[in-house]
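Hello, quick one for you while I still have it in my head. A protein chain has come my way and I'm curious about its shape. Can you walk me through what the tokens say about the fold? No rush at all, and the record is pasted right below.
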Amino acid sequence: MEDSRIVQLYWDRNEQAIPATSEKYGNYCAPIARNILGNSEDTEECVNDTYLHAWNAMPPHRPAVLSTFLGKITRNLSFNRYQHNTAQKRGGGETMVVLDELAEIVSDTERVEQVVDRRELVRAMNGFLGRLPSGKRSIFICRYWYFDSISDIALRFGKTENHISVILNRLRKKLHDYLCERGFEL
């Protein structure tokens, strides 16, 4: 099914949006969650929560690229679950539970300067990625957006793990230099 049709199902509040999304993007979202969380139970829950978050976001939001929209939701939910899981191991997890409860009623307290700084950083990183050859950009995104393992990236690109590690190390150094040149304190 076309993405525009799936989005329209959400806008029409048609429950078929969820199975259509799962069928088309389940195999896209699951590896994102699995690479962050490392277990199938949490992965499945985060992917299912992705569909719920998409349901709650549309309307009013109409994503331009559905896969990116769903991938970002999955990634954020997976990070939240990861933080929750690791907080539980440190001391019962009550702090994260309380913060999650408060997050539902407290608005974002981020200062305007922080928002502007983050937007500038995102623009700078997009500029850096836009200047990379497509192969290196893909390797960078596989590692730092999708959290793919070095071995998976090496297999996908037909290179050795050592070669991928060297490429990533050089890209991180170039990114550091690029951001420093633009006035970011790292």
Observations:
- Residues 91-99 have pLDDT under 50 and may be disordered.
- The first helix runs from residue 3 to 11.
- The CA atoms of residues 11 and 59 lie 5 Å apart.
